[in-house]
Amino acid sequence: MLASAARRSCRRSSSQIRRLLGSSAPPAVVPGPCIVPKRGNDILNDPWYNKDTAFPTTERDRLGLRGLLPPRVMSFKEQYERFINSYRSLENNTRGEPESMVALAKWRILNRLHDRNETLYFRVLIDNIKDFAPVIYTPTVGLVCENYSGLFRRPRGMYFSANDKGEMMSMIYNWPAEKVDMIVVTDGSRILGLGDLGVQGIGIPIGKLDLYVAAAGINPQKVLPVMLDVGTNNKKLLEDKLYLGLRQPRLEGEEYLAIVDEFMEAVRARWPKAVVQFEDFQMKWAFETLERYRNRFCTFNDDIQGTAGVALAGLLGAVRAQGLPLQDFPNQKIVVVGAGSAGIGVLNMAKQASLRMPGIHITEGHNQFWVLDKDGLITKAREGLDPAVAGFARGSGPDEIPDLQEGASLVEVVKKVKPHALLGLSGVGGIFNEEVLKAMKESDSPRPAVFAMSNPTTKAECTPDDVFKHVGENAIFASGSPFSNVALGNGKTGYANQANNMYLFPGIGLGALLSGARIISDGMLEAGAECLASYITDDDIQKGILFPPVSRHITAQVGAAVLRAAVAEDLAEGCDDVGPKELASMSEVPYYEEINITSLKFEPMAMSEVLTKLTVLLTVGNGGLRRSKNVVPHLQPPCEQKINRENLTGSTEADAPDILFERMYQTRICFGCLLLTIFHLVAHMESIFAEIDAHGPRIWLCIAPFICLDMIMSL
């Protein structure tokens, strides 16, 4: 398809990027028009292109929309205000209603906009990310996934099931977008803290990718949510008549891995540069797939690595809040409740951070962690010890507390260890009860940190009210889902930090994408986490604020840190026209990240694909035909119309028309161009006649000069 993306990223050419290396104030980029390969109702039914009532009269004529829309043309601003007013009205009208009912009502109104008009949807989301992130993502997304089969109205993303084995390589080409940059995939086996939700877990990849677009500026046409449906072991779903997934037990062992392998190979075959994020896989498959693919694909697991990065950023912030240098981190005593994929991921990254602290010499055997699961404290005395957690099991040595035995309770561990930080990744709501929190008050830290990181809100280990009441006003609190700050009296505030992956994973994806990294290494992830940790000022840290508000600027900074790490580790292969050497020499990496973030707004739409295919033949440049921009030349932005005159004949801009014709003659567009033109005419005869029927002689007036000119210069 020669049609260009509906909402392109503001990409710069390699020459412009070179000028940016030492520049801080480059010229603004003017976006080009969108070439629409559809007409009439097909446009109105496509959320990528649809503007609803914002189509101006000229576009309604060109695109066959006159009469299909109400006559009034509304501006983007008017549409925006209309939606916001509707949303606020919903909030006012549902006051006093059950919280779950209100949350689903808010999700429905946003989802309807998403299905109808993506540009307006993402503009609303970007401008109101603080209000809408809890609706499109945690905690509301958990409720949506639980009821997804009943809420289903329109498909979004792709579904690869066990029944599709052997067909995925061809199925992948059913997705309409020619290029995909970011894929989020789940098998639905462990959705948040809700367990096995089967195919209904598709809500998680959809929500994650919405945040990729809003926070990282990934083009919404270039993201793909994916569900791998290998069955479900949830009896309730298997008995549900509305359930939309396979009604069979989950595949296991090699059968399961064969499905995932085939999917990954299909992705590589069509989109070899795509970043694949694994999401909400149960623990055994989370670690298995991460180790299986991390050195062959550009992929990461958000539950293991993303959660770990955010937790590490919070822990480093807690060290700063104590007035200590970051080098003191290896001396912090940390109790982790939950030995699943998220818990083990946090432990691994925190251990690596301790080993890399400058000026500190510790051994691999150093263990500053106490890990508990449903059976209590994990020690080396436990039978059938999981290899993933074995390195963190307590044993014998100078760091051990003699009275703590295998299976010791959480209260006992907290009382005897007196940890600096208590992390909850258990998925058990309320497990940090009053007794546990009062024990944390005796912590060796002047600012005890309590992180209740399980999602959704109902699964949080405790609330900020509980922490500030029982631990004290000097406590530091963070949670996976959003909570309100707590008024402590005397004008003081207890801050409810949200230690959510959304601070990190958009930046990881953006940095990996723009660096063209072959793989995503631990060093890249740790660089992103450390960037996030250093973002907060000392004044905010002393107040108990660990994380900044979610914004594109933060994502650009995290992405820049990830990109630099990729270059330093020689993993970067470059993106588009920007090669690895140029990336390595950049002085404005964060700015490079920011200019590659998609700016969502309505763009002018050019008339038809047919004219584009003919006029694009005349876009010439250095050494022959230029790379097709798929836009009508007279509608191109100035930055794309410019031709480097010094590379042509050294003449001035005033000679542009003559030089352009001379250059076209010199390149001698050969007989192949004529054949190509004939090929396009034959291949698209039906659409050409449709244009002729719609617009009459004007089509021939546009086409004829180009055909004649092409034939003359082919002689």
UniProtKB/TrEMBL annotation:
Asked whether the UniProt record includes Transit peptide among its keywords, one would answer: yes
Its lineage opens with: Eukaryota, Viridiplantae, Streptophyta, Embryophyta, Tracheophyta
Q: Which family does it belong to?
A: Belongs to the malic enzymes family.
Q: Which organism is it from?
A: Urochloa decumbens
Q: Under what name is this protein listed?
A: Malic enzyme
Catalytic activity annotation: (S)-malate + NAD(+) = pyruvate + CO2 + NADH
The subcellular location is: Mitochondrion
| Molecular function per GO | identical protein binding; malate dehydrogenase (decarboxylating) (NAD+) activity; metal ion binding
Q: Which GO terms describe its biological process?
A: malate metabolic process
The record's listing under Pfam families reads:
malic, Malic_M
Which prosthetic group or cofactor does it need? Answer: Mg(2+); Mn(2+)
- One Gene Ontology cellular component: mitochondrion
